[in-house]
Design brief:
Jelly Rolls, 12-stranded antiparallel β-sheet, globular, 5-stranded antiparallel β-sheet, 2 domains, 32% strand
């Protein structure tokens, strides 16, 4: 089980700080006014505290998403769906060569508990790690009053069939206190409600929802909403701006469809981080992210993205052992 240590080691990194130190297995997490400090047997790693917190709260809210989440090129997690591997340097050639790479696997609930504890203790009032930099204050500085923000507000209930159906996930609306984001008002989209007309005898059998309206009301970025589900085929939409706070390593292919504005993606080899390419997506563009890469997004302004996910549970080992090719289509 995770534990909170009562006192930090007497070292330059943790002296004179009121922030709590956390440990999980052989990993420990501390912070000072500027950095998150991660230690493991034989190694220590410093991260800009805002980068660490922004990545961590998304990993926490996603419950580790699909596959690999790199907080940076050294530290991250791998989701084994019931278990989570925490790693430091195991996918960085220089750390492996130096013999200081380390990883350890925990029950999912253990990692969630520690990350939630860090979020509760390390996030001060005035800083919101779910917002883009222009919308929030700084995470730097000494410990202050705890932030009074919801870290789950962007992680909406996934649609079982389709957003807005009776008994299913509810679309965002002005009535629920979720106005259209100022960032989308320049699009001049008609955020009206679809009119559904059916032939006699088919009443209640047809449904439509304006998902542009739903996503335009999201106050956070890089957090997909599952808007429809057909068995294991999921349509996920999100609004994106600034930089994706993590680098995502796929354990299955994903399809991306750019709906508005543009997003630039950098692609790297999943195991080594070696650069593979760059994709610039504009409205109407479609691309597939293979199962053997990591990707990171950069959005110059608030944009809408549709992601098609296959949530079939036994896919990851089939891609990992080479039974399935890492890419979804050959030309």
């Amino acid at each position: 089980m995770s534990q909170t240590l009562s006192a930090a080691p007497q070292s330059l990194e943790t002296l004179d700080t009121e922030y709590q130190l956390f440990s999980l297995g052989q990993f420990s997490f501390s912070r000072d006014n500027n950095f998150a400090i991660i230690r493991w047997p034989g190694g220590v790693h410093y991260m800009h505290v805002e980068l660490f917190l922004s990545a961590m709260v998304r990993d926490l809210g996603w419950e580790f998403l699909y596959g690999w989440i790199f907080f940076d090129d050294i530290f991250g997690t791998i989701n084994y769906y019931g278990k989570v591997e925490m790693f430091a340097g195991t996918h960085h050639p220089s750390y492996k060569k130096a013999g200081i790479a380390y990883h350890e696997t925990f029950d999912t609930e253990q990692v969630l508990e520690v990350f939630q504890g860090i979020a509760n203790d390390w996030i001060n009032e005035g800083y919101d790690p779910l917002c883009v930099p222009r919308e929030t204050g700084s995470a730097h500085g000494p410990k202050g009053r705890p932030a009074r923000i919801s870290l789950t507000r962007g992680f909406t209930q996934p649609a079982k069939r389709m957003l807005g159906l009776p008994g299913d996930a509810v679309a965002r609306s002005s009535a629920s206190g979720q106005p259209i984001s100022e960032s989308f008002k320049d699009l001049h989209l008609e955020f009206d409600r679809p009119q559904v007309k059916t032939e006699p005898g088919f009443e209640g059998s047809l449904h439509a929802v304006n998902v542009f309206d739903h996503i335009a009301r999201s106050e956070v970025t890089w957090i997909p909403s599952t808007v429809s589900s057909t068995r294991n085929s999921l349509f996920c939409m999100s609004s994106e701006e600034h930089v994706l706070p993590v680098t995502h390593g796929n354990d299955r292919p994903e399809w991306f469809i750019q709906l508005t504005d543009e997003i630039h993606w950098t692609l790297q080899d999943k195991e080594t981080g070696a650069p593979l390419g760059r994709v610039a997506m504009r409205p109407g563009d479609v691309c597939a992210m293979p199962a053997d890469i990591r990707h990171k997004g950069f959005a110059p302004k608030r944009a809408m993205l549709l992601v098609l996910e296959n949530s079939t549970p036994d896919l990851p080992p089939l891609y990992a052992n080479g039974t399935l090719a890492p890419f979804p289509v050959e030309f």
